[in-house]
Design goal:
alpha+beta; Structural Genomics Hypothetical 15.5 Kd Protein In mrcA-pckA Intergenic Region, Chain A; nine-stranded mixed sheet; four-stranded antiparallel sheet; 19% helix
């Protein structure tokens, strides 16, 4: 690999210790039902399930015996038989709730559930020599510490300069890479203006297994965010369905009654309070578009300088001109929402070892936190 200059970001890389809960890649999960993505905003997104598809198929009564890989090949467009076979090997194809091999013969009225890595797109993918911060690499996967401002994959309005363009340059062909697929190797993503860790698969089998881990919520993800105000409790949980706003389709709203959107849960802990803003640790139980940003806006604590969700205004503090200028200076230091994907942990799809990666906060976020820390010490905040 021709690789860019790296930073040392691994804090922990170990086998799972006895105090950590076991992560099962288990077979025999409940059947997976089809979930349509409600994403229509291109690149402005939190991690979301639409990088893998979930299908449920009931076999016709008149269907003759046929290998399941051949049967499914006739049910989907733009999919190869090898991709179906790898999904089966990864335990991603269930028949009547049980994982099956590619040579399983489908029978009338079988219920088939399948998880497939992300759907295809139709734009040419061009390798580009863009520096990447690679914190870990083996024959099966890569851990990237994405900088803020970098789009994860090509899409409308962002056809070049993305992390995926850089990946295919540095690593060559990635799984599911062809002219119709702009997301080779991906099983999750973070917003353009969110910095931090992502895992990328280097083989199709690993990609399928990682997709299943995300679907089963077996990935440990921790974010750090700077938010306006101080939550009433030092730790807690924000719950509420998240879906596209009924008034503005470019943003997400929280629907606490569950009448719209998808189930979403964010756990948080206040790490440090600076009076008018707080540094919080967020653990995702689900991975919805803009989940952290939407949940904290709903809770009355928008992310600092999050223009999409109202955090780019002076929401707490005094009316003094000097204070307002201080906040504007902070906005200039971090001209984006203050969110970093700090920790990523999972069971390695090949070795079976638990791996935990931790990254330092991006420089702009570290600087603005230090500014607020200094202000809270030297200025009286009430």
């Amino acid at each position: 690999m021709q690789e860019a200059e790296k930073t040392t970001n691994i804090v922990i890389f170990s086998e799972k210790d006895n105090n950590q809960p076991e992560k099962e890649q288990g077979q025999g999960s409940e059947p997976i039902t089809r979930q349509q993505s409600d994403d229509a905003s291109g690149q402005s997104q939190e991690e979301e399930n639409d990088l893998y598809e979930h299908h449920r198929i009931v076999v016709d009564k008149g269907q003759g015996l046929l290998r399941i890989d051949k049967y499914l090949l006739g049910k989907f467009e733009n999919i190869s038989r090898s991709k179906i076979q790898n999904s089966a090997k990864a335990g991603n194809i269930l028949v009547n709730g049980e994982a099956v091999k590619p040579n399983y013969k489908v029978k009338p009225e079988d219920t088939i559930s399948i998880v497939l890595a992300h759907p295809p797109r139709e734009i040419e993918l061009i390798p580009e020599n863009i520096p990447l911060d690679i914190v870990y690499e083996d024959d099966h996967l890569v851990i990237v510490n994405k900088e803020a401002g970098m789009v994860v994959h090509p899409g409308y309005g962002n056809y070049t300069g993305t992390m995926v363009n850089a990946l295919v340059y540095h690593f060559g062909k990635l799984p599911s890479q062809d002219k119709e697929n702009l997301r080779p190797g991906l099983v999750h993503r973070i917003d353009k203006d969110t910095s931090g860790l992502l895992v990328v698969a280097k083989t199709e089998l690993v990609q399928s297994r990682l997709a299943r881990l995300f679907y089963e919520r077996s990935i440990d993800r921790v974010y750090h965010a700077l938010i306006w105000g101080e939550p009433r409790e030092e730790s807690g949980t924000i719950q509420g369905h998240i879906g596209r706003s009924l008034k503005n389709r470019k943003i997400m709203d929280v629907f606490p009654g569950g009448d719209h959107g998808k189930h979403a849960v964010t756990h948080y802990k206040v790490l440090e309070s600076f009076g008018y803003v707080s540094l919080v640790e967020c653990t995702l139980e689900t991975g919805r578009t803009h989940q952290i940003r939407a949940h904290f806006r709903y809770a009355g604590h928008p992310l600092f300088n999050d223009a999409t969700y109202g955090g780019d205004q002076v929401l707490r503090g005094t009316t003094f001109t000097k204070y307002k200028q201080f906040v504007r200076n902070c906005f200039n230091i971090i001209p984006r929402h203050a969110l970093h994907a700090k920790t990523l942990g999972f069971v390695h799809p090949e070795s079976g070892k638990y791996m935990l990666f931790d990254s330092e906060l991006a420089p702009d976020m570290k600087e603005v936190i230090e500014k607020w820390r200094s202000y809270s010490v030297h200025k009286k905040i009430s």
